[in-house]
Amino acid sequence: MPALAPHVERLLDLALEEDLCLGDATSEATIDAAARGRGRFLAKEDLVVAGTAVAARVFERLGASCRFDVADGARVIRGNLFGEAEGPMRALLGAERTALNFLQRLSGVATLTRRCAEALAQGGGRARLLDTRKTTPGWRRLEKDAVRAGGGVNHRFSLGDGILVKDNHVAACGGVAEAVRRARARGNAMLRVEVEVTDLGQLEEAIRAGADIVLLDNMDDAALAEAARRAAGRVLLEASGNMTLERLPRVAAAGVDFVSMGAITHGARAVDVSFEVG
After folding, report:
1. What number is the average pLDDT over the span 63-90?
2. Is 144 annotated in the active site?
3. What distance in Å separates the CA atoms of residue 265 and residue 134, rounded to the nearest whole number?
4. Of 38, 133, 134, 184, catalytic
5. Whole-structure pTM value
6. Nearest 5 degrees, angle CA 254-CA 258-CA 264?
7. How do residues 209-243 score in pLDDT, each as one tens digit?
8. How many CB atoms neighbour CB 131 within 10 A?
9. What number of other Cβ atoms are within 10 A of residue 217's Cβ?
10. For residue 119, is it left (φ>0), alpha (ψ between -120 and 50) or beta?
11. Where are the domains of the chain?
12. At the topology level of CATH, where does 123-266 sit?
């Protein structure tokens, strides 16, 4: 397995401390210290796998070995085994819940992302699915990795990765054009300038001001199509707000370049995976 980033190792420190700060009273009372065993990961629903490296690392931290038969991004059908861990039985039982918490959550993000990306593709066009910064605090890198495993594309990882002029920036600057002008004059020349607009008038203002990307916030399907017609390749368009699985094909057909969805991270349900010892 690849080495984990230092901040992910710190996250594992917190997770394991949370669960094992007082030891494992049950395993210490019922399992001989010398006992060894093996457990297997079972998919209890169809899913897209993500988080295998961090799940494996949990077992390694406690002295067991762990491997997965599939890479992140692979589909696993309900009822299939897709990995195993082996080592001291107390280690397996102590690592089980923490490892599954990471694996189930991150696979849930990848599974929902895959569904949304496939729905977007049904509409034709060139639209790509983006994530947002609406992530679990401390988990951003892991959740954005899971988005990529599911077929999505990462937007900003942090506030320093790009210039995204939101509605509050526009209000503070007195308008779209002034906000874009300041971003162009004062910002890092290597960063693209994106600005959020809520109507077609603001779209025209953003294009004239020299924005690289325009985020179309909470526009209906007809407005998105008109925005694409007016932009006509002069600027990249990102649609966001009120995106649902059912709506995505229509949004793609409107002709935008990107669709961003916070729900693929903050709204993803943990998938059902079990760890079966025996």
Report:
1. 98
2. no
3. 7
4. 134
5. 0.95
6. 110
7. 999 999 999 999 999 999 999 998 899 999 999 99
8. 28
9. 18
10. alpha
11. 6-117+268-277, 123-266
12. TIM Barrel (3.20.20)
The residue-averaged pLDDT of 187-203 equals: 93
Amino acid sitting at position 21: C
- To the query of whether residue 217 is one of the catalytic residues in this protein, the response is yes
Residue among 148, 166, 181, 247 flagged as catalytic: 166
Whole-number Å distance between alpha carbons of 6 and 190 = 27
Cα(224)–Cα(239) distance, integer angstroms: 7
Q: Based on the residue annotation, tell me whether 212 is a catalytic residue of this protein.
A: no
Q: Alpha carbon of 65 to those of 37, 95, 98, 112: distances in Å?
A: 11, 11, 15, 29
Considering the candidates 143, 194, 196, 238, report the single residue annotated as catalytic: 196
Neighbours of 278 (CB within 10 A): 6
Instruction: Tell me which of 96, 194, 205, 217 is the catalytic residue.
Output: 217
C-alpha span between 257 and 238 (Å, rounded): 6
Instruction: Look up the CATH number of domain 6-117+268-277.
Output: 3.90.1170.20
Amino acid at 196: E
Of 10, 44, 78, 97, which is the active-site residue? 97
